[in-house]
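Structure first, sequence second, as always.
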């Protein structure tokens, strides 16, 4: 998949079948839309293209307008791009959402981005799509502008699964409850966060529990706490671990979000490697402790609970009762 961190340069612009949105999580509703876009792109003989934004527009407005609260992020940009590629998208344009972009009138947005920037021949949108300054653009206006500029427009109804609307909001609600079974049903895959392993403060190593550290590049992940996890990317098969996702109140104040994973039965140098942390079960919320001894005791208990989880899973698998 080609990824552009802006609209493509003039010499790389080609006609496309386009969809537009944040695609946080790339859930089954998104996948249904992307599958439909792929069928159209095949019919027209043009690549399937996604136009998305960084930061999320509501994150931008939350930083600049009192009273606006941005939703927590389901996925990092890395994970979103990987999911879009897996869905068959040929080109993704990640446009920087700033004051200038936010001020574009709907007509100007269509002319500059869709017509001139992306050469759209077909535009497929969700049924809640709005565009342009103050979200004044709607489906009727997009149809009118499409007729004027020579591109087709269609919209797709929201997917429902077992009577539930599949949406990023539904995924966030399931993550907030640590209902990873429901999250997997909505996403169509297990929930995971991936990234490069970076150097940290090495406190975990000093305490006897070294960790793989992944930075969370946005301020509000959609879940937090201590979790039983699987780690992909260290060995041929996933390895067991216990992870902390949050701001580490036990060791620092006002820390940036960080995903720290202690791998239970693996040792080696993982710095710089890309790993994927798959979430299985929540053990508890983050907490503060009266000294490092209390913290170490709790980490040891967390590790024991994770080991017990994997031991029970192994027994269920051996007896054919695992789900």
């Amino acid at each position: 998949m080609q990824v552009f961190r802006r609209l493509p340069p003039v010499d790389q612009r080609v006609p496309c079948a386009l969809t537009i949105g944040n695609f946080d999580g790339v859930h089954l509703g998104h996948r249904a839309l992307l599958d439909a876009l792929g069928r159209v792109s095949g019919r027209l003989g043009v690549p399937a293209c996604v136009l998305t934004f960084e930061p999320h527009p509501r994150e931008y407005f939350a930083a600049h307008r009192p009273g606006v609260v941005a939703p927590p992020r389901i996925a990092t940009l890395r994970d979103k791009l990987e999911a879009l590629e897996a869905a068959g998208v040929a080109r993704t344009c990640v446009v920087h959402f700033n004051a200038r972009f936010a001020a574009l009138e709907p007509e100007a947005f269509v002319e500059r981005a869709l017509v001139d920037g992306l050469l759209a021949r077909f535009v497929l949108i969700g049924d809640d799509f709005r565009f342009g300054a103050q979200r004044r653009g709607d489906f009727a206006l997009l149809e009118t502008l499409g007729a004027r500029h020579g591109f087709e427009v269609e919209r797709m109804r929201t997917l429902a699964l077992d009577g539930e609307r599949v949406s990023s909001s539904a995924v966030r609600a399931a993550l907030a409850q640590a209902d990873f079974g429901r999250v997997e049903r909505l996403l169509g895959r297990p929930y995971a966060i991936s990234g490069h392993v970076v150097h940290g403060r090495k406190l975990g190593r000093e305490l006897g529990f070294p960790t793989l550290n992944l930075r969370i590049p946005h301020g509000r992940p959609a879940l937090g706490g201590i979790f039983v996890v699987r780690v992909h990317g260290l060995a041929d098969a996933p390895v067991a671990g216990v992870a902390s996702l949050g701001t580490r109140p036990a060791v620092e104040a006002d820390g940036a979000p960080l995903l720290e994973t202690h791998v239970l039965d693996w040792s080696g140098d993982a710095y710089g490697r890309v790993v994927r942390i798959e979430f299985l079960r929540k053990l508890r919320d983050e907490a503060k402790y009266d000294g490092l001894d209390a913290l170490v005791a709790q980490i040891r208990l967390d590790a024991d609970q994770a080991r017990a989880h994997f031991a029970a899973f192994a027994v269920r698998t051996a007896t054919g009762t695992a789900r």
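Margin note: Residues 292-318 form the longest helix (27 residues).
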